[in-house]
Amino acid sequence: MKILVLAPGSRGDVEPAIRIASGLIADGHRATIVTHADYEQSVTAAGCESVSFTVPLEPPRPPGGKAPGARGYLAHLRDYMLDHARAALAAAAGGGFGAVIANPISPYGHDIAEALDVPSAEALLQPAEPSRGYPPMIASNLDLGPVLNRGFGRLARRFPAPVDTAVAHVRRELGLPDESRRAGAHRRLSAGLPIHHGISPAVLPRPNDWPSNLSLDGFWWPVEDEDWTPAVGLVDFLAAGPAPVLITLGSVDTGGSSAVTDFAEATDRRVIVQGACGSNLAEAAPHRVFAADHVPHSWLLPQVAAVVHQAGAGITAACLRAQTPSVPLPQHTDQFFWARRAHELGTAVTPLTGKRVSGEGVSAGVEQVLGDSGYRQRASQVAARLDDGDSTAPLRRWAAMCDG
Predict the structure, then answer these.
(1) Which of 172, 174, 221, 308 could form an S-S bond across to 327 if both were Cys, CB 3.0 to 4.6 Å?
(2) Contacts of 115 (CB under 8 A, 6+ apart)
(3) Nearest CA to 321 among 402, 379, 376, 263?
(4) Residues 393-397, mean pLDDT to the nearest whole number
(5) Do 292 and 187 sit in the same domain of this protein?
(6) Is 298:321 a contact under the CB 8 Å cutoff?
(7) CA 60, CA 264: separation in Å to the nearest integer?
(8) Are 328 and 352 in contact (CB under 8 A)?
(9) Is 17 contained in some domain?
(10) Separation CA 206–CA 217 (nearest Å)
(11) Are 208 and 282 in a shared domain?
């Protein structure tokens, strides 16, 4: 069976989709992943067909220019989502698909499945169903507690979203009746749409107010590239002294750069920096700072003393898996949720937000996590509970039923 997998978003959104598709391919299915052109090589290396789009996730910024602001960023996201939706429509027009898998920011995948008259499922990297256990991910910094969280989540679903334009475009192009994203989500949930979460119950125990069609499958870890080898300079740097602190703010820089730059310039500790600021820091202090490109977390994280990160779902899970304590620096949406979960599990310091987002704040967090061995011990205890079998198995069983 041919399965259409929609994966807009950053590297952290694409790698789980590749893991899912690899499991489906192992069962004899064929998978087409619709994602950004930046990840086409990774998609095809996993044996999947790639259909790409080109609008970047980050809005272009002139050299030395200012960020576009909230309104400009939202307008760019609408263009980004619409470009991906058009690529998804082009892929679907090729025909022959027997099922569709959508991610959190491609709900129009279900509209495509409706037009094709095939089943669809949702593969989420963060909880989305309103619950007493957490606030809505769009505002996860505002945890209002069990009494108010669920109502807050339902209210947040009424807010317009950048993907709404793409949903309307897809339904119009496919000749489907007008339906809002919110109405469509409610209809599908009521009909029992399979909603899978790439989250381990060791990190998020299943909320007791979830409907039965929601499942926690375990983390969808990145597929390892067997041909990948680390740069010689990175290997030499790791061997040249004590385990360094890793600074990584993800593939989309949404803030925090100045704080980590100030920390890296002032600290006496050895540091590996991933991101745009890494090269300049390494040039200024070549014996203490190393600038790294993308490196598999499974290889690098066990070799560092601590990680300063943006608290996305992927890096938070990777730190737990590597038994590496962390200093979370959340900037938006679900990052506050994951930072809070890591802190509640005892594997990370209190998330750096507000006035603590500074070089001094990062330094204090690093010294705290490295000065208390309990953080690493608790991370090891959580890691031991993450071995929960094949996390792709539930979606593979669903695909087998669709094919039957």
Answers:
(1) 308
(2) 92, 174, 175, 176
(3) 379
(4) 97
(5) no
(6) yes
(7) 27
(8) yes
(9) yes
(10) 11
(11) no
Residue of 357 and 66 predicted with greater confidence: 357
Q: Do residues 207 and 252 share a domain?
A: no
**Mind listing the pLDDT tens digit for each residue in 242-273?**
999 999 987 555 556 788 888 888 899 999 99
The verdict on 296 and 184 lying in the same domain is no
Amino acid, res. 398 = W
pLDDT at 74: 85
Residues 237 and 198 in one domain: no
Whether residue 242 sits in one domain with residue 196: no
| Residue 238 belongs to a domain | yes
The CATH number assigned to the domain holding 324 equals: 3.40.50.2000
Alpha helices in 27-68 (DSSP H): 40-45
In this structure, the number of other CB atoms found within 10 A of the CB of residue 85 comes to 28
Count of domains in the chain? 2
Q: In this prediction, what percent of the chain has a pLDDT beyond 70?
A: 95
Given this model, what pLDDT does residue 315 score? 95
Q: Is residue 140 part of a domain?
A: no
From residue 357, how far is each of 53, 67, 224, 298, 330 by CA, in Å?
A: 34, 19, 33, 27, 9
Residue 57 lies in a domain: yes
Q: Could you say which DSSP state residue 352 is in?
A: -
Domain range for residue 109?
2-125+160-218+388-403
- What's the confidence (pLDDT) of residue 280? 67
Give the pLDDT confidence score for residue 323 in this predicted structure.
Answer: 96
Half-sphere exposure of 376 (CA within 13 A, CB side): 15
pTM of the shown model: 0.93
Read off the pLDDT of residues 137-179 as tens digits, 9 standing for 90 and up.
999 999 999 999 999 999 999 899 999 999 999 999 999 999 9
Check whether residue 172 and residue 256 sit in a common domain. Answer: no
Helix or strand (DSSP H, E) at 216: strand 214-216
